[in-house]
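Sequence in, structure out. First:
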Amino acid sequence: MSNDPRAALQTLVSAFEEHLAAAANRRGDDDPAVDGAYLAIADAFDAYEEALYEAYDEVTPLTVFAEEEDDDLDDEDDDEDPDEELLEDNEMLDDDLVDEEDYEDLGEDGAARARR
């Protein structure tokens, strides 16, 4: 593996070009040439990102997403409440954050009453 960012960039550009050629000549939905070119892009990008960081302490705003090979992982998340998951991630929902003075009072008939 080269630590030269320019060489790694050229390898990445070549991987993109190979992917384009494979996609243009696709022989079906599961064409191994396209799949191989896809993986080559991910590998070349990782090498470029590492070389760029080592040479210049810099990164790109891009991320390579790995495909999950086990569909069972997705099934486990289906049982969870999506709102509950958001609360776990954010931990921001708190009754103290709601300012009740920002809301109008409703009378018994449901009509808004003016605050005085």
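Second:
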Amino acid sequence: MVVISFATYEIKIGTILGLLYYEHNNPCGTRGASVGAETNMIKAVWNGKIIAESERTEIVEGNHYFPPDAVRQEFVQPSETRTHCPWKGEAHYYSLLVDGQTNVDAAWYYPDPKPAAKSISGRIAFWKGVKIVA
């Protein structure tokens, strides 16, 4: 595993079953770290279950944002948590519930992002131990 630390967040990169994954500890991070589109099949995995799977994620600040229809709704529960990112806007959260275990606020999305972040409107990203596997 490789750990990359920045002033405001940390990214861990490694492999699971020979597949590349990464995780981080800050959903807002520092603007401009990494932006782009991923065209490989990307999966979000937690507690042994695939939470989301898509060939078309948007990458912003190192986070894969999945289309809403790529997320398995049986594993997500709305949360009342809200945070604010200066350039993306207000983030809303989901908690994950898998096999009786809860991962509070492990997913977030921007329902009405600021113009600079329109590409991730409604898309869902993960953290808090959710593995992103390529």
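Remark: The first strand starts at residue 2 and ends at 5.
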